[in-house]
Write a structure and sequence with these properties.
5-stranded mixed sheet, ROK, 22% strand, kinase, Nucleotidyltransferase, domain 5, ATPase_NBD, alpha/beta, binds beta-D-glucopyranose, globular, 289 residues
Length: 289
């Protein structure tokens, strides 16, 4: 068993927990500290240090960030303080905590976790995990392997910036009911479907807690759409998985073989247009070898 501390930097809270990266299980209660006002780098690093000290777990630590993270550097900050842009965050967090810290985009972390231990476990092919919150995060996963930093929330749909128009924040801002919001999300998913032909969309973020409110109103043409299963643990789990992979000998690479009890991934699914496609999509997923 390898146990790694995973930390998820969110808009309102920074949460951490030790994760068994072989099973995806949290090994103790999450510990949450409110995100400091303005979420400036030094303040956030201070909170991450507090979490690291709180758990006092030896070894590497995985941390999520809501922007592009390339080779440890932060390259965008759509919804957080712009002072993050250009920072060598792996080095800065490692310096602030004295621990081997590895950053990963928040949606990529959620995607890794969902693909291995959640709604995408055992699914072959192209899986697109989308998180709807303040922004829209995306993770593109092919046969369990992540293509990082896809940033599909920043696509333009004619004259509309996807994240500004269809995020959960947009739903609240524009006072949309769930059906009206689902209509916007459907246009967005249909566009993604045209570009990527995913076998499966996994819809995460806070909205995944009550999928019955919006999932039946989603329409896509060919793909299966299911809600995320790991909810607010996904970022923590994915961050720990990534840190485990970054440290040779700590853990195996991600393959979607789960020891988490399987939940019915398609308990609620979005209506699809073609019956033939529906039949194909409802075939049971073949477990990976
Ligand atoms: C950022 C992404 C992030 C998403 C969700 C977007 O604004 O550009 O990097 O994954 O928000 O937090």
């Amino acid at each position: 068993m390898s146990v790694i501390l995973g930390i998820d930097i969110g808009g309102s809270g920074i949460k951490g927990a030790p994760v068994d990266t072989d099973t995806g299980q949290l090994l103790s209660e999450r510990y949450r500290i409110p995100t400091p006002e303005g979420a400036r780098p030094a303040d956030v690093q201070g909170v991450v240090r507090q979490l690291v000290d709180h758990f006092a777990l030896p070894g590497a630590v995985g941390v999520t960030f809501p922007g592009i993270v390339q080779h440890g550097h932060i390259l965008s900050a759509a919804n957080v303080d712009k002072a993050w842009i250009g920072l060598d965050a792996d080095a800065a967090f490692t310096g602030a905590t004295g621990r081997d810290i590895h950053l990963i985009n928040d949606a990529d972390a959620a995607g890794l976790a969902e693909a291995k231990f959640g709604a995408g476990a055992g699914v072959k092919g192209t899986v697109l995990v989308l998180t709807f919150g303040t922004g829209i995060g995306s993770a593109l996963i092919l046969d369990g392997v992540l293509v990082p930093n896809t940033e599909l929330g920043h696509l333009w749909l004619r004259d509309k910036h996807a994240e500004t128009w269809a995020s959960d924040r947009a739903r609240e801002r524009d006072d949309l009911n769930w059906k009206q919001w689902a209509k916007r999300v459907s246009s967005y998913l249909q566009h993604l479907e045209l570009l990527f032909s995913p076998d499966l969309f996994i819809i995460g973020g806070g909205v995944s807690k009550r999928p019955e409110r919006w999932l039946p109103a989603l329409t896509v043409s060919r793909s299966r759409v299911v809600p995320a299963q790991l909810q607010n643990e996904a970022g923590i789990i994915g961050a720990a998985m990534m840190a485990a992979q970054a440290v040779p000998g700590v853990a195996e690479p991600a393959v979607p073989a789960s020891s988490r009890p399987a939940k019915p991934a398609a308990a609620v699914t979005a209506p699809m247009k073609s019956a033939a496609v529906k039949k194909a999509a409802s075939k049971p997923a073949t477990p990976r070898k």
